[in-house]
Amino acid sequence: WLHGGMLQINSEKMSKSLGNFTLLTDVMGSYDTAIIRLLMLQTHYRSSLDFSDTRLEETTHAYERLANLVRNLRWARDVAACGLGAPAEVCGSLAADIDSARRKARCSRIR
């Protein structure tokens, strides 16, 4: 990874002399590395990166929304392909204008 811009902590230039620095190992102890990567990807590599607890929390929520989207898309893909291991009769009832009564009867027999 290449980041050529300034790293800022709470909108202030990170500086050891100011004591406003955070060790990456400390951040990784509190946040998943995917969230840290997403935070970095949200900033152009030649721009200043503002690193703060607020930005990390915002990025955590954005990551959760993306992860939920991926889960929903995978679920929709699997349902469309009946890849959930559902019997063909269940898929057929879904295709038959969502015949919920037949689907429920068939699903209650799957245990």
Shape: elongated
Strand order of the largest sheet: 2-1-3
Q: Count of DSSP E strands? A: 3
Biggest sheet character: 3 strands, mixed
**Proportion of residues in β-strands:** 5-15%
Average pLDDT rating: 74
Quaternary state of the chains: single chain
Q: What percentage of residues falls in helices of 4 or more residues? A: 55-70%
Radius of gyration: 23 Å
Topology (SSEs and partners):
Blueprint (H helix, E strand, L loop, with lengths): L6 E3 L2 E2 L10 H7 L2 H9 L7 E3 L1 H28 L7 H8 L4 H10 L2
Parallel strand pairs: 1-3
Antiparallel strand pairs: 1-2
Helix pairs in contact: 2-3, 4-5
Main features:
111 residues, mainly alpha, 3-stranded mixed beta sheet, 7% strand, elongated
Q: Can you put this structure into words, describing what you see?
A:
- Strand 1 (7-9) and strand 2 form a beta hairpin.
- This protein has 5 helices and 3 strands.
- The chain has 111 residues and is mainly alpha-helical.
- It starts with 6 loop residues before the first strand and ends with a helix.
- The mean pLDDT is 74.
- The relative contact order is 0.10.
- Helix 2 crosses helix 3 (53-80) and helix 4 (88-95) runs antiparallel to helix 5.
- The chain has a 3-stranded mixed sheet with strand order 2-1-3.
- It has helices at residues 24-30, 33-41, 53-80, 88-95, 100-109; strands at residues 7-9, 12-13, 49-51.
- The longest helix is centred in the middle third of the chain and has 28 residues, at 53-80.
- It is elongated and about 70 Å long.
